[in-house]
Amino acid sequence: MPYDSPILKVARRIVKEHPDWFEALVEFERTKRLPKLSYKQRANFTIDSELLRKFRIYCQNHGYKMSSQLERLIMQELKNKA
Length: 82
Fold this sequence. Notes:
There is one protein chain. This protein is mainly alpha-helical. The protein has two domains: 1-39, no CATH class; 49-81, no CATH class. 67% of the residues lie in helices and 0% in strands. It is elongated and about 55 Å long. The mean pLDDT is 88.
């Protein structure tokens, strides 16, 4: 396979974008156990208490998780700005 093949380019891009996946595979080879990959990170920020109260009630009334709604809104905002 040539060094400039499209498959190799895609593979290199994937390795660059997701090094944690490949670290997990190396760990699996070593221990024969696949480590749990955590894609979530705790965030700590301050927002208006009244806004938080309204958002909490909104999420409870609609059966949403607050964190999932925030993730969705952040992704939507980033997509709009790109």
